Each structure stands twice: as structure tokens, then as C-alpha cells.
Fold each of these.
Amino acid sequence: MTTIRHYLQFQDFSADEYAWLFQRAAHIKALFKQYQPYHPLTDRTLAMIFEKQSTRTRLSFEAGMHQLGGSAIYLNTRDTQLGRGEPVEDAAKVISRMVDIVMIRTFEQEIIERFAAHSRVPVINGLTNEYHPCQIMADIFTFIEHHGDIRGKTVAWIGDSNNMCNTWLQAAVTLDFNVHVSTPPEYEVEPERAGLYDTTHYEQFDDPMDACRGADLVTTDVWTSMGFEAENEERTRDFQDWQVDADMMAIAAPDALFMHCLPAHRGEEVSADVIDGPQSVVWQEAENRLHTQKALMEYLLLGKAI
Ligand code: CP
Ligand code: NVA
């Protein structure tokens, strides 16, 4: 029996596999821009399970699967038996007998791992409390479109050590670049939670300005992630000095990019002049979710037989 490949965290793929995916994403994007039909996944079905809200992830996976010739089914906790306590293992066994590939957005990483362990088809992480690998794949593809290889470059992560931050840290190990992290005290990176077996690719800075100095990319995310809403008031207080603003962009490299996975809160984690300014590539970054995830689904279902 062949082993099923899943995409549960960034380090599930090697640097060579990312090189392949980025090349395929560029090709698939070019076909899309030329309105050229491309249907390698005809008759394939994607199940998308959402236990948290989404705009971009749902849209990019659903539109992407249609564009590849297949179809997508949207499921959420409220309308399925998952919301009434059906074990994840049972759901995995049933769902994976009816579709070809599954994407899940849920809470603890452990939930998606249990699902994958009982799935007969590839499972993709569409965001957990710990990781958001599809987003970082799109972000790095966006970086490459502007600046070429990310190897040896510096990414400044400003704000919460959340699922996005953890995934950047994993990506830095896999693709050999550096992350400068600045979080408020008591929100520091937890290497074990980030799944890091190598901590040599990141450095922590108390002052966010120091983290941004000379960076090729400055990036941030909401102060309060989904599932942590009860901490919102306290976080809003604690993160006041971690807003990416024009001073931080000015101390970064002159051609530094700004990214944000969205949705964003102008006036909190980023100032309006930065996210709406000339160094911001957030709309291209959002669009690239579509192209990179099409490459991902193609790879998980067909391998390199293209
Ligand atoms: N960036 C991202 O994953 O957005 P959604 O929550 O809208 O899917
Ligand atoms: N860190 C955010 C990302 C949203 C796309 C969250 O988990 O809510």
C-alpha cells in the first residue's frame, strides 16, 4: 500500500518539493491569467471542513478545485455531526471514502492529525491554532515573484507568536532563511509548539524596530487569533507597541515588502498607510492562495506526473 501524503504543517515537504510547487504555481497562474482551461482533476472531489470562519481559504480552495476540473463540498461544524460529538476518527473514515482530498480548518493541531491518521485520502491543513502552512506557501511564492529566491533573506515577524509565526519559523528551517521575531513579553515563541527541531533560523528582539532593521519582508497578523477572543482586551493592551507603521518600514531594506495574511485591523497590528501603501503586496498575497493551493492539490493527487 502506498503511503498517503498529507500537508499538515510546513515541514511536511522538502525544499525540493517546494521548488516544484512554486514552479507549478507559476505555470497554473499563467494559465489562469490567459483564461486557458486546465482540468487535471476532472471528477475529483474536495471536502472542506470548517470549524472556524473563513473568506480566503474557502474561496481559494473551492474556486481552485472547480478551476482544476473537480468539485468542492463545504462542511462546517454546525451543520454536520462533528458538532454533535461524532468522533473525528469516525468522520475521517467516512468522509475519506467519499471524496479524493480533504481540507480542514480547526482548533488544535492534534485534531487534524487524528483525522489524517484515519483518512484514506490526503488531508490539507487550512489553519489550526498552531499552523497555517497554505498561507505561508502563498506568502513565499509572493516573495519569490518580487525578489527571487528567499534563501538567505530576512523576514521580520512583528506581533503574536501565533499559527502564522510558527509556520514562518518552520519555513525558515526548510528553505534556509532567517526570521527576526518581536513579540510583547509573555507572548514569545515556544519552539516546541512551533514544531521546531532547529532554532538557529530565528532571533528574538525586544524592540520591534530592531527586528525590522534591514529586513527584506515585514509581516504581521492580528493580535487576537480565532479561538482566543476571550483574551482580546488584555491583548489589545499588551500589543500597543507592536503596530507595524511607517517607521518600521523605513528601517527595513529599501525594497522591503509588507505582507499580512488578512483579515487586517488597520490601527491595531498595522497602520493604514503601511497596509495601503506602496510596499504592501497583500492583495497579490491573497490571490496567490488560489494558485499555490491549486499546485498543492495537483501535487497531492497526481504527484509530479504532469
Ligand atoms: N488568510 C486567511 O486564511 O483568510 P481567511 O480566514 O479568510 O480564510
Ligand atoms: N492568526 C489568525 C489568522 C487568520 C487567517 C487566526 O488564526 O485567526
Note: The chain has two domains: 10-132+288-302, 134-285.
Amino acid sequence: MKKRIAIFASGSGSNAQKIMELFKNSPDAEIALVLTNNPEAYVLQRADNFEIPSHIFDRKEFYETDDIIELLKNLEIDLIVLAGFLWLIPKNLIAEYPGRIVNIHPAILPKFGGKGMYGDHVHKAVMAAGETEGGITIHYVNENYDEGEYIYQAKYKIEKGDNLEMIKFKGQQLEHQHYPRIVESILKKIKK
Ligand code: GAR
């Protein structure tokens, strides 16, 4: 039986897309659902292109009901993948999927993590700090922003004169290169 992944994303979904591509014809796993808090998120279009169903939710549904948990359970989801998802995961969802929620962060945690540290905010903070290296962290998710156990980290060089776009590009390249394969390796360890 195929393992089943749910992807949560709030924006463009370029990482989600890479994961969709990897599992498109996989005999082992499939993306069963894409969930977003943002009705305008481009990830919805990407899901559509891959004929993956999606679900849009609001704060009330996410934080005040068990509806999302019920949905994930009904779909027999094995792993939750956060790919540019910007809301804190509520305790009830973490309790339901212990060690089964992973996130990617565009910095070498614990530096440049925490509330408000997402997307360009992270890259800008890295630049402002005069760092000579940037990177990515793939980690398990707990109830605090960016604090779960690390699974994988990778670095890139920041050259003098690199601007925001360049730094963002280098980080994105690393994310796209590693997130899908790390998700695949985590899935292999999960028992159905
Ligand atoms: C990615 O760079 C991811 O690391 C970051 O959001 C971006 C989403 O891009 N996540 C965070 O900052 C989480 N704190 P994408 O929508 O193109 O995949």
C-alpha cells in the first residue's frame, strides 16, 4: 500500500512542486492532499496541475476545531510535509502525528529562526548580519517555531555583492535538491 503525504503550504509552493514531481509515478508513495490557509496561494494551481486535491482552511478551522485532523485521518495520511507553511502547528495536530511532521527552513537553525522568520525576512536578516554562509534546515516540527529535531542541514556560500535575489536563489536550489529526497527517506522509515 502506498504511503500517503499531505503538504501544507501558504505561498508559491516551489518546494511542494518538487515533491509532487518526485512522487508523481512512485509505486511507494503519493501526495494525497495539499492544504493551505491562503486561497490565493499558487500552490493550489500546482496541485491542480498534478491532479492532487486541495483544501483551503481559515484560522478558526485550524485552531478551534479537529476538522483538519479528521480530514487527514480519513485520508490515512502517514506524513505531513510543511513547504513554506507560515502558521504555527497547533498542539492537537502535533499530538496526532508525533514525529510525522517535517518542515524546511531557509537558514541554518538555530540561527535566523523563530516567529516572523520566514521567506525573505530570513534572507534579509542573514544579509544584515553580514553572514558569509547561508543554508537550509529540514527538521521535525514541535509546538514552537523552528525548534524540532534537525534532520538535515546544508550550506551555501554568500559572496561579497550577492543581493537578496541571489541569496534566495542559492537557498532555493538547495531546498529543491534536498527536500524531496529527505522526505522520501523519512517515508521509508515509516511503517504503514
Ligand atoms: C522556502 O524557502 C521555505 O524554506 C520557507 O518558505 C519558502 C517557501 O517557498 N519556509 C519558511 O520560511 C518557514 N519558516 P516555496 O513556496 O517556493 O516552496
Note: The pocket of glycinamide ribonucleotide is lined by residues 9, 11-16, 83-84, 104-106, 118-119, 122, 175 (CB under 6 Å).
